[in-house]
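Supplementary notes for students who missed Thursday's class. We covered one full example, reproduced here. Read the sequence, then the structure, then the short commentary at the end.
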Amino acid sequence: MIFGKRVVLGPIMPPDLTSLFQWTDSAEDAAINGTYRPPSWNEQEEFWLLQQDPSRIFFAIRIKPRSEIAGYIQIREIEPVHRSAKIGIWIGEAAERGKGIGFEALELAIDYCWRQLNLRRLTLEVFAHNEAAIRLYARSGFEREGMVTSMSPSSAVSFAVGPASPDGARR
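Structure (token representation):
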């Protein structure tokens, strides 16, 4: 597990599946994060708990000292040769958003990518209308690279970040 001041990143556990299923089954949240499709319990269980794909890592985000899941970090399309990956974050309960939990969790995950996975580049895409996420990513050192206009229902902004230099500044 990875410990921060207020959050812990760790494995997704079977008791987390109920919350993950509920978050996936929200058409309102899908407008922020993707396209809504009614989930299947078996597909969700397979996706979160049984996946054996070495190009993906999921971390549950837990707020200290609580044990229930508050959100997740997804590191995917890990390319060891190119030393790159895509990253994303989701804070599941709207009441927990905007409190700095996502920022701390994302910082821990970025550090994990640099130190443990030996990556040199992280990218992400976010819907252009998701202003809170865009602010979070910019605060975490991601720089806007472009606009993806082929995404539905709206365009998306692409961002990238490189590891911190010895003086702490992100490249």
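Commentary. The radius of gyration is 16 Å. Residues 101-115 form the longest helix (15 residues). If anything here is unclear, bring it to office hours.
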